[in-house]
Amino acid sequence: MISRRKIAKLIVWYLIHPTCIRLVDQPIQCTLHSSVIIETTQQEIEQKNKYHEAVLELYEDAGKETFRILKEKGVFVVKCQDEICSNRQRFIHVELIQTYTEMGFIAEDFFVIVRTNKPGVSRAIKQVHARKTIPIFWFFGSPQIQKHLEVARMNPIDLLAEIIKEQAPDDIWQGSPIIGYRLLGNTNRRKVGEKFIRRYLEHYGINARSNGNRTSKTDMQIGNIGFEVKTASLEANGTFQYNHVRLDRQYNYLLCVGLCPNNVVYSLWRKGDIAEGTAGRLVRMAEEQSVTFKLTKRLDEMLSLDSFIPEIQSVISSS
Fold this sequence. Notes:
Elements: E1 9-13, E2 30-31, E3 35-39, H1 42-47, H2 51-69, E4 75-80, E5 83-85, E6 88-90, H3 92-103, E7 106-112, E8 136-141, H4 143-152, H5 156-167, H6 186-203, E9 209-210, E10 220-222, E11 225-233, E12 239-246, E13 253-260, E14 263-270, H7 271-276, E15 282-284, E16 292-298, E17 303-304, H8 308-318
Parallel strand pairs: 11-13
Antiparallel strand pairs: 1-3, 1-4, 2-3, 4-8, 5-6, 7-8, 9-10, 10-11, 12-16, 13-14, 14-17, 15-16
Helix pairs in contact: 2-3
């Protein structure tokens, strides 16, 4: 049997600031101004372990409850003192730091207090070990503090890059031999499309002349037929967007070139079909003007480049 004066009393201090305490269902027996006293009766101790193990079990149970209710920036202060039990050294201050760190607490600091009175001794026939006269106060931080510090050390660029990668669609252009087109400005993109059509036609013996500037009546002249040339690259949603389509310029046909990661497609319409909406719905580039439009086409609406030369030859012969 353990005498009542040997019944363990565990005093747990929290940070004085009231916002650091969260008692969910008031599981602790009594509450003081800035501390909580947990006291276990002799009968409860006898139902579990005995002697030093009973004391250690009290500390462990209190630690579990504190881990549950301690809020962020809370401080868990534990008083303990080593003892001699059954003629064996029991360094409880070492056992506690092992127990509480395994729970997730962070050992922040400790204080050693020297007692001025003599410790109580029972059934000691011969003194074998030195008397334990130094109570120790362990200060443990809540695991949220460590988590907060880890978040503070996170590289913001790495975090932003991860979020962008999560939100960005799959890059269909990765590894494409013509991915450089998407890095060009609008003016250079227009030149790429026009030069491609001109050189492609010349390879098959069809003379094409680029007019060379944005103020020309047409972008390209093939025979006596004027062409407006628009170039766009395939987007992740499977469409091409042709910008700055104009109806006030003097061309006969609108030629739309579509660049895919590993292929080239096209569509060709008469200017009248563009104006009447046969080629697709024109959308104003800006709300307050009605001069330039954009035309969006799906990939399955475009034609293979294999039929481009025969169609151009048919247009030239019918003019």
